Amino acid sequence: MSTDVVLPSERDASGRSFGPEERTLLLEVLESGVLFGPNGTKVRAFEAEIAALLGTRFARAVSSGSAAVHTALAALDIGPGEEIITTPITDMGGISPILYQGAIPVFADVDPETLNITAETVAQKISNRTRAVIVTHLFGNPCDMDPIMKLATERDIVLLEDAAQAYLAEYRGRYIGTFGRIAAFSLQQTKQITCGEGGFVATDSDRLARRARVWADKGWNYESEAPDHEFLGLNYRMSELQGAVALAQVRKLTAMVEHRVRVAEILRQRLDGVAGVRPVPVLDHAVATYWRFPLLVDSEIVPGGPAALAGELKSLGVWSTPNYIRYPAFMCRQFRERVTFGQSDYPYSLHGDYPQERLDDFPGCKTGLASVLVLPWTERHNETHAAFIAERVTEAIDRLVQDSSRPPGRSG
To answer: What pLDDT is recorded for position 38?
Structure first.
């Protein structure tokens, strides 16, 4: 394998799929002079096409993935003091909206291999204050939805999906994002499709779709004959410029996801049998769509674990992220010190028994983060890149093993 292989990057054109389709639609917007989403055509066209692709009745576009989570919570009319069960392994944009609604995030442990929450870990966190659970399909790898949905139904808990990383991922032949009452998606730079920033919610509910539209437009209903600010809302509108890029991207989504999956399967096969690493498992009845390509690293075989392996890979031309995030969300200062609205301690002040979480109380999270190494992945990765990565992973592990076996004071 040539050493001059350069891997695609999601941060620039080498790993993104922009082309004449995006330019054409952007030019149409500029020539029209209408950049304001509610008065234009591109945002609405995007909403219609992504809803049709997912198989939901409605999609409502917003300005970011974080805005999508917040809009979903607001559409559900989540209120102060209500508890929302979620994962500690996610972007802060999936958690902060809970606090902005005055609700309380309650963290469930995760499966140590998939790093996804499970019905068992959610059940341990349910209280009489629990209103909803946010199910995050990490890395585009579906959670085990049947037992989670059964639990939610039995306990009368609303199910919200965070599908930001899981475009066209499947569970039992059905797309992720169609299981809950409402789902949130992201169009941020690194996602399977992107318009730089942006997002949307998807739902089959007329009421939730209407409320999402109005809430994300400052409570103002443009479709009403006598519009008024019906309730407190925010300005999370998507512009026509974002909508133009998103519309072009969604028309490529199926082909791009199929390519991601096909090349990821090649990499999985090439890594099969490499001692010390293995891809994160995918359920037999699920299809992962690889926002990233996560590996589990056995520190007993790979000296130094994910951090050491990442260092060796970097020297060999392969970027990666050891442990995915520095630490779980509940260990961030925002949660440790409850830094929210001034010195109010709100919304934690609504009930005084909110726990200070400890990592040792989350064994799945602790084990999973300590063993995971995350490789970037884009629709521009091909078979050559897969072979290059597999060879470099093998070479990096060999180097670490050899270095660890040398007597102290000896160098190669």
So the answer is: 94
Q: Is the dihedral of CA 233, 234, 240, 243 positive or negative?
A: negative
d(CA 150, CA 389): 40
Residue 270 — very low, low, confident or very high, per pLDDT cuts 50/70/90?
Answer: very high
Burial 304-335 (b: 16+ CB within 10 A, else e): bbbebbbebbeebebebebbbbeebbbbbeeb
Residue 107 CA to residue 127 CA, distance in Å, equals 12
pLDDT (tens digit per residue) in 378-399 = 999 999 999 999 999 999 999 9
Range(s) of the chain covered by CATH 3.40.640.10: 20-252
Q: Does domain 254-325+366-405 sit in CATH 3.90.1150.10?
A: yes
Residue from 42, 125, 150, 191 carrying the catalytic annotation: 191
Q: Are 312 and 399 a contacting pair, CB within 8 Å?
A: yes
- For residues 133 and 112, what is the distance between their CA atoms, to the nearest angstrom? 19
> Could you give the CA distance from residue 59 to residue 36 in angstroms, rounded to a whole number?
18
Query: What is the third-level CATH fold of 20-252?
Result: Aspartate Aminotransferase; domain 2 (3.40.640)
- pLDDT at 279 > cutoff 60: yes
Q: What is the pLDDT of residue 412?
A: 45
Domain with CATH 3.90.1150.10 in the chain: 254-325+366-405
Q: Is 224's pLDDT higher than 80? A: no
The 3-class secondary structure across 379-401, one letter per residue, is CCCCHHHHHHHHHHHHHHHHHHH
pLDDT at 1 over 60: no
Q: What stretch of H or E contains 268?
A: helix 253-271
**Could you confirm whether 42 is annotated as catalytic?**
no
- Identify which of 194, 245, 202 has the alpha carbon closest to the alpha carbon of residue 54: 202
Residues 382, 266 contacting (CB under 8 angstroms):
no
What's the rounded Cα separation, in Å, for the pair 162 and 57? 18
Complete edge-to-edge strand list for the sheet that includes strand 58-62:
58-62, 199-203, 182-186, 158-162, 130-136, 83-86, 104-107
Q: What is the DSSP letter of 220?
A: B
The arithmetic mean of pLDDT across residues 60-85, rounded, is 98
Q: What DSSP state is assigned to residue 274?
A: -
